[in-house]
Every structure is written in C-alpha cells, then in structure tokens.
Amino acid sequence: MERRTMGAAGLEVGAVGLGCMPMSWAYTASRRRGEESLRTVHRALDAGVTLLDTADMYGPFTNELLIGRVLKERRAEAFVSTKVGLLAGEQHIVANGRPGYVRRACDASLRRLHTDVIDLYQLHRADPEVPVEETWGAMADLVRAGKVRALGLCAMDVLGGRRSRAGLYDGTVRQLERVQQVFPVSAVQAELSVWSPEALRTLLPWCAARGVGFLAAMPLGNGFLTGTLRPGEGFEPDDLRARHPRFTAEMMAANQPIVAGLRRIARRHGDGVSAAQVALAWTLAQGPHVVPVPGTKRPGWAAENAAAAGVRLAEEDLAEVAGLPPAQGSWD
User: I want to staple 275 with a disulfide (CB 3.0 to 4.6 A). Which of 30, 175, 262, 331 is the partner?
Assistant: First the structure.
C-alpha cells in the first residue's frame, strides 16, 4: 500500500502506527517492563513506523516520559501524537477542558516529550462543564503559538447497556461539526477493527469527505484478534479486559470463529502472515486516510504490526471478513 502524508502536520497514511498506552496504562501492570518498552519504540521506528500515539493521562505522565527518552535521540523520525483533557486519579478519571489547563498541560507534555512541538494534539474527552468550542479555541491558540502543528479529536461516545450501536458516533459527529467552525480538525481517533466496525457507518465517511485522517484505535481488539488469548485464562484485576463484556470466558469462546476466519485468510497469504496482520490489513483497506494504531509493549510484535502495511487483501479476503459472525458481548 502506498504511503503518503495528509493534513497540516503531515500524518503518514498507508502505514501502521504505534499505540504506546499498554506500556504504562490499562493493561496488566505486572507485565510492564520499562526497558522492554523502550526497545519496542526503537524497534517500531527501525521498522518504518513514524506515528507514536500517547497521552498525558497514561501512567499518568509516565508514558510521555518514556516516549521522551526515545525522542531525545530520534525526534526527526517520529510523528508525535499526544492528548489532553483527562485527569487520572487513584479511583477515577475526570475531564478538564478549561483553556488555562489546556495551555499548562501542553507545556508539561512538551517538557516530558523533550520536543519543541507536538505534531498532533488530540482532545481526549470534552469537558461537560466547558463548551467544547472554548477548549478547542485554546488548542488552536497552541497551533498559532507554534507549540502544536495540528489538532485531533478522540471519539467520545460509549456503549451503555444493551443500547443499539447504530448511532454510536452521532454525538462525536455533532461535536466535530462544532469544533470545525473554530479551527480545522486534522484527525479523528476512534475504535475500528474487524470486531468493532461501527465507525464505518458515519464517522469514517465524515472524515473521508473532508480529508481528515482517521486513527483506528484498538485495531487488534485489545489483543483478541491476534489469536494469542485463550478463553478462561483470565486477566489480572488492573487489566481493563477483566471488566470488558467481550472478555468473559464465555464470550471469548463464542467469538473464536472471528479469529479462525482471520487465520484462514492469513494462511492463504503465506507462512509469514499472521491473523494480527490480516486484521491490520483489513483496517488499512477501509480507506486511504486510515492509520491503524495497535498498542503493544513487545519489540517483536511492533515489528510484526509494522509489516502488516505490506499485506494486501484481495476482494475475496475482504468478502470473507465481511461474512464473519458479528462479535458477541455479555450485553447481548
């Protein structure tokens, strides 16, 4: 797949990025290894990855510090994306979109990342107590000040109970329309994968129609689509998957046909192609403006993910993925 750049900051599309969150946040803390995470980032850059996606709340702060250690040596090779708008406490996460906070948070991120400019600054979540236009205006001022090159928005909608997924991103689209009147949106980040394709309905078309880049979060289904997770193994309490409705033993078993389908396609592409690479190739095939951002903390997986950009799915492959059963969760 041909690589090219998009938007004011030069976001490279047709490639795979690196989601750095698992190195410091949300997944099992006992399996985090700082030096291994550093090797992972270096390995990703060596493999041609340019997009490094982080956030100030991951850790909190420790993820940016880790990425900053790499950027001290290799800033010219990286497209740096970080986020603002969420504060992580001991037992809770709160949004803060006040303009003064946004300005202070940006300066702090620049220090931790050891850089003079952030390529893509994303609003992690809108603050319900602050008009999103005010938050976005403060972020736009950072572009004008030369501290940020472009702005992005993370999709805010969440699935609650048994609510239909049909209009999952309607709220995000309305928010995008509002902030677009203040300052251009260069990228949108939202979940998109073989087992979570909801963004294809409205969010991805919105981006495509406006030349906005799309960062596909969780393109490997929090690890499920790699085929390396087994039903019943369980997760440690601090792992987000311990509370995810698709990661109960029953639902993981029920969703195995999805992984089996990805493996069948991988076998057709040769011994060196994995189910994970097929899942990433499917994400890339959803549009020339789509950049999958799989999270990992292992050097070998980072290299494998990067190589997925070279896997080209045929029409029969895409049709087979389309025919796979939809993912089940405990809300179903």
Answer: 262
What is the C-alpha to C-alpha distance for residues 159 and 284, in angstroms, rounded to an integer? 24
Residue with tokens 């709340």: 57
Rounded-to-integer distance, Cα 129 and Cα 140, Å: 19
Which residues lie below 8 Å from residue 128, measured CB to CB, with a gap of 6+? 95
Q: Rounded to an integer, what distance in angstroms lies between the CA atom of residue 227 and that of residue 279?
A: 11
DSSP string for 103-163: HHHHHHHHHHHT-S-EEEEEE-S--TTS-HHHHHHHHHHHHHTTSEEEEEEE------TT-
- Residue position matching structure tokens 């440690």: 236
Average pLDDT of the segment spanning 32-59: 93
Please count the helices (runs of H) and the strands (runs of E) in the chain.
11, 12
User: What's CA 2's distance to the chain center, in Å?
Assistant: 21
End-to-end CA distance of the chain: 37
pLDDT of residue 317: 98
Among 126-135, 183-192, 323-332, the range scoring the smallest mean pLDDT is 323-332
- Beta strands 148-154 and 118-123 are parallel
Mean pLDDT of the region 223-238: 88
Instruction: List, for residues 275-317, the tens digit of each pLDDT value.
Output: 999 999 999 999 999 999 999 999 999 999 999 999 999 999 9
> Residue 30 above 70 pLDDT?
no
Percent of the chain with pLDDT over 90: 80
Concerning whether 101 is annotated as a catalytic residue, the answer is no
**CA gap 178, 175 in Å, rounded:** 5
Q: Are 109 and 84 in contact, with CB atoms under 8 Å apart?
A: yes
Catalytic option among 27, 58, 121, 169: 58
Reduced to 3 states (helix: H, G, I; strand: E, B; else coil), residue 292 is strand
**Structural tokens at position 310:** 């070279």
164: CB partners within 8 A, 6+ apart? none
pLDDT of 125 strictly over 70:
yes
